[in-house]
Amino acid sequence: MRSILTGEGHSEYSPVGHTANLASRMQAIAPSGSIVVTEDTCGLVDGYFRIRLLGQVTLKGIAAPLNAYEVLGLGPLRMRFQRAAGRGLTRFVSREAEACA
């Protein structure tokens, strides 16, 4: 964040850096009224939202091409536990002593 003083003595903040640049570039390629996200974000929201791969895009200021995804709407998942179950839950290990007899 970069602090900018206004004429009235108030501070305003302007985001700077890689993340702000990437967000701005993704917003620029999004069709009107839609949301476009990167592969990293897609991995975090998959299942909570329906996603469609748009393909690789080359963005100014970003070294390598990125996969872009369009958010189409809500997906079937509503809770984190549903997402974890879909990925496969892990078994309890070394908890036999705590088991009810």
Descriptive report:
The protein is of the alpha+beta class and 101 residues long. The chain has a single domain, classed as Alpha-Beta Plaits, CATH 3.30.70.1230. It contains three helices and five strands, in the order ββαβαββα. It has helices at residues 18-29, 39-45, 80-87, and strands at 2-5, 11-14, 35-38, 49-57, 66-74. It has a three-stranded antiparallel sheet. A two-stranded antiparallel sheet has the order 1-2. The longest helix has 12 residues, at 18-29. The chain is extended and about 70 Å long. The model has no long low-confidence stretch (mean pLDDT 82).
Enumerate how many helices there are, as a single number. 3
Distance between the termini: 57 Å
Q: Tell me the strand order in the biggest sheet.
A: 3-5-4
Q: What's the helical proportion of residues?
A: 25-40%
Tell me the name of the CATH class: Alpha Beta
Level-2 CATH architecture: 2-Layer Sandwich
Rg to the nearest angstrom? 21 Å
CATH homologous superfamily, by name? Answer: Nucleotide cyclase, GGDEF domain
Shape: extended
In the predicted model, the low-confidence regions spanning at least 5 consecutive residues are none
Overall pLDDT: 82
Largest sheet: 3 strands, antiparallel
